[in-house]
Amino acid sequence: MTIAVLLAALAALGISFTIVLLGTAAKRKETKPNVEAIGLGAVTNFFDTLGIGSFATTTAWIKFRHMVPDSFIPATLNAGHAVPTIVQSAIYLVILGVHVDPVLLAACIAAAVLGSLIGVPLVVRASVQLVQGIVGVALLIAAALYAMSNLALFPIGGTASALPPAQMAIAISVHFGIGLYAPSLILLSLLGLDPRLAFPIMASACAFLMPATGFSFVKSSRIDLRIVIGLAIGGIPATIIAALIVKEMPIVWLRWGVVVVVLYAAFLLLRSAYRGPQAVPGDTR
Hints:
Elements: H1 2-28, H2 35-49, H3 55-65, H4 73-80, H5 82-95, H6 102-125, H7 128-150, H8 165-175, H9 182-190, H10 198-218, H11 225-244, H12 252-275
């Protein structure tokens, strides 16, 4: 019953977000998708479905290609990957969700969404340098987590499909304030959950919080909706292909490549944050 309710809620949220996105894009005359963003969305969401994540890799390419100003990155990531992540969540809920404790699943989703809603106004109003610094540090952490994954230093995890009350309280409270995917996988594994069952929790939390925050991001001035639409168009079919055809493909070697590009992106962001706005002369976007 819980899974059916979550799937229905995801569908409603996805449709509502798409309507707002396209409507806002039409008003701004930004409905034509960026072609490069379509390819980027396909690649990053393909890897995201395999468990690598999409934010770090997308940020790395955006920085490398100077597709948008640094201050646009948080909005671009949340809005652009929202619909593909909803598709990913629906697939995981159908395939694995029935094995996860519904209370744990729903509570972690609610905590992540609430935490993100509180944080969005701060991100939208934050200075460019602050956004650069925060994202840069987050990318360094992501790179470290990817490297640990490759070196088999992640927690082995347990075999449980549910958690005792004390561990569940920890999981819920921490999901209120952390990023998802790798941090969530580590946390849930340490608490004894079967690591495979962390995937529907991670994907579903992101699938709810990204559109929820995306409504504010889409209407902000720090976003290029042509890139957002491109990421979504490329990401949806790539997510389906990865989940249904090659989700068991060995990907250890890919994580090392991710570490390299993520470290590069973090370096660029932190350098820009240190130097200030004058580090990007001529950028009037």
